[in-house]
Design a protein that fits this description.
InterPro entries: Tail_protein_I (IPR006521). It comes from Agrobacterium vitis. This is Phage tail protein I. Pfam families: Tail_P2_I (PF09684). This protein has 247 residues and is α/β, with parallel strands linked by helices. The chain is built from 7 helices and 6 strands. The protein is elongated and about 90 Å long.
Length: 247
């Protein structure tokens, strides 16, 4: 391979052993340098070692929870321009959570009958896949934190959001959701103990779509009580609900 900086390019006035060695070293360095490394890369295909740099460059540090699966990191980075453009909107939150495979039911105050208190929102986010490696359960404290972190990074802070975290997935028997009240982001932002790990599998055999949420009070026997035991809640409150399949 020809030298990038030939020795005869060193001007006569400084053509000594030191200058020639410097030119040869610089030539070797530049010869191995890939100029494509200076270009904006596609987050979906870039080398994984560049993801931390891209996170900073794209202003996405506030969205990233340590340990988040690489797939979700790449999706967040790929959606960064849209997310930043839509920050402070419901569409922005949906776009960001979509990178984690999270779907959202969002009811604004004026959509309630009668209308609720101004600028209050009821949000249910459904986890459809694992966010961290090595976890068998979907509803974990780490998952709850990761979802809340994304919402905090995108939401408009004048909004008071009553937030619930749940599991939602399509099955031949319908959609089954396990919903956990996670926290109210504004104004108190109090932490809530994570729901016992809900293992997904046999839940899909349920004959209808229901929502489960933790309850401090004991409830009467229900036809889907076995489902509650499977989820791991010692006491649950059953709420009739119809939900569209989420993909």
């Amino acid at each position: 391979m020809a030298e990038l900086i030939p020795a005869d390019l060193v001007t006569p006035g400084v053509n000594d052993e030191r200058s020639r060695a410097f030119a040869a070293t610089l030539s070797a360095i530049l010869g191995n340098f890939q100029t494509s490394a200076l270009l904006i890369q596609d987050p979906l295909t870039v080398d994984a070692k560049l993801l931390p740099i891209m996170t900073i460059e794209l202003g996405m540090s506030d969205f990233m929870t340590p340990g988040l699966l690489e797939t979700h990191v790449r999706q967040l980075l790929a959606r960064a321009p849209d997310i930043h453009a839509m920050t402070g909107t419901v569409a922005g939150v949906r776009r960001a959570l979509g990178a984690l495979g999270v779907t959202v039911d969002w009811v604004q105050w004026w959509q309630n009958q009668p209308p609720g208190q101004h600028d209050t929102h009821e949000v249910v986010a459904y986890i459809n896949n694992h966010l961290f490696d090595g976890q068998e359960a979907l509803l974990t404290s780490e998952t709850q934190y990761a979802v809340l972190r994304v919402i905090r990074a995108v939401q408009r802070w004048s909004q008071e959001i009553n937030f619930k975290l749940g599991v939602g997935f399509a099955a031949s028997a319908g959609l089954v959701g396990v919903v956990q009240t996670a926290t109210i982001l504004k104004p108190s932002a109090q932490a809530v103990t994570a729901m016992p790990e809900a293992r997904i599998g046999a839940v899909s055999t349920a004959a209808a779509a229901h929502v489960l949420r933790p309850s401090a009070n004991a409830t009467s026997q229900h036809p889907l009580a076995a489902l509650a035991a499977f989820v791991g809640c010692s006491s649950v409150q059953f709420i009739s609900a119809s939900m569209d399949a989420r993909t």
